């Protein structure tokens, strides 16, 4: 019985990834374009998040500033502190043309950070799960919402990690071509 429950976790995760591949390809490509526009024009990516998303933010910043699967020059990326300090960091560090990539876990602590980025004329990319519709009203037409289609927090976090890796791969592909890792 326990083994079946464990297997069910894998099946549910795999099903979600399969279903999301088609639905998320376009918003991930749009997010990639926003990231590349900032990076190639001398801008930077500020990465923040709430809850589990706050734990993913330093991972993405490290992959951009370091490397994903192959060597390349470092990309300007910085992980923001979790909580209300993130909005202050955006106000202090954000510039027009930079990107705020915000990973939301559904706790709804993102409004201040997004408002700070809007005040600095930054492009905003949001990865969200539950409550993603609330972001549609906050974001401008030039911003990107990558909405994970699931209610369970564990599945959302798993797919958000995959989305971050897709972004890294897509940015590397656009910058360096189709070289093998």
UniProtKB/TrEMBL annotation:
Residues 35-181 form the SIS domain. It comes from the Bacteria. One of its GO terms (biological process) is carbohydrate derivative metabolic process. Gene3D superfamilies: Glucose-6-phosphate isomerase like protein, domain 1 (3.40.50.10490). GO terms for molecular function: carbohydrate derivative binding. This is SIS domain-containing protein.
